[in-house]
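FIELD: query
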Amino acid sequence: MQTCFFAISGVLPRDEAIAQIKKAIYKTYGKRGDAVVQKNYAAVDHALAHLEKVVLPAAASSEFDLIPSISGKAPEFVRNVLGQIAGGHGDQLPVSALPAGGTFPTGTAQWEKRNIAQFIPVWDKDLCIQCGKCVMVCPHAVIRSKVYGAELGTNAPETFQWAKPKWKGMEEDHYTLQVAPEDCTGCALCVEVCPVKSKSDASHKAINMAPQAALREAERDNWDFFLKLPEVDRSKLSHSQVKDIQLLQAAV
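FIELD: result
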């Protein structure tokens, strides 16, 4: 980054700037041997060799619109105030739009749909052992699970998935592991922690990353339906076992 900055900024003559950068490299890494110094020199040279000018078009050429940062189902205050702030237009809000005393409502992050992940997790219900590790490791509560009565799933979207629960006394219910496609950051920690691999393909797990754009609309409907399902009775769960903790309601 430093090399690119001085190569195009004109703060110093280009040759002089690069010479000073390499001088600093030698001063910093010279004691570690010539091999280390040469590798750092090579990094500078490669950065210069791969500089490429990007010409911005006079008008937008994209074939799709930006997705709103706030769900249209959000409360009025969230849409009109927090939505403007999230969209980078907070400086256009009048002071009168902000709460007197500066106290904002809680739980508003659930309405912000950033859609920043190019790839999101997809559940393989037939391979899953329902261990709950992916639910536990997700830093944004994007992956959640529920066990619910079979009758509650009769009006589910066509792509909504469920499996037979692996809990004693819940065998007749349905288990669903659901992902919030618009909240996921694409970190893939869920895939890393998943302990189950396909016997025929070791790269395939019970949860795998797939392109978000093609899944967004269907999974958005699945997520909305999932949220309407009742939470599991906390008194029936062990709060010291990961398998049960995955069924506890997540904080939003």
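FIELD: remark
The two ends are 38 Å apart (CA to CA).
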